[in-house]
Amino acid sequence: MRISQKLEYACRAMAQLAKHPAGETLTRLDALAQREAVSANFLVQILNDLKRTGLVESKRGKTGGYTLGKSAKEITLFDITTAVEPSMLSHSLTKDGESGPAVEKAWLGLSTQLTESLKKVSLSDLASSDESTMFYI
């Protein structure tokens, strides 16, 4: 499976923000970019997408920064994916031809399984310091 760089960076940034309780601590953009080895210019675009969907909140100014918009337990990989890469979960299949309906059914089933799996992984799971955590799809 190919995950876009944008989605990967979004997950990494969100995991970093999840290490601090929502609303209690602001993380500066430059610190976040440095910790996750991501370009600050690209990261700000990603954070704006996450902000539009309410997953991230920001405060401007000298003491500003970013924090989660809700608890890490309430945010899932599905939420992050739909915020920054909604086309990843969309499909455009046709029922044309004799095999069209069978192919469509197979891909729709796989899409449903992926969506359900993404909903099972919370941001708190990603932010866990336990390196042995295993994710099953």
TrEMBL record:
A single GO CC term, please?
cytosol
Q: What PROSITE patterns does the record point to?
A: HTH_RRF2_1, HTH_RRF2_2
Q: Please indicate which superkingdom the organism of origin belongs to.
A: Bacteria
What InterPro entries does this protein's entry cite? TR_Rrf2-type_CS, Tscrpt_reg_Rrf2, WH-like_DNA-bd_sf, WH_DNA-bd_sf
Question: A Pfam family this protein belongs to?
Answer: Rrf2
Q: Which organism is it from?
A: Persicirhabdus sediminis
Task: Spell out the molecular function terms from Gene Ontology.
Answer: DNA-binding transcription factor activity
The protein's name in its UniProt record: Rrf2 family transcriptional regulator
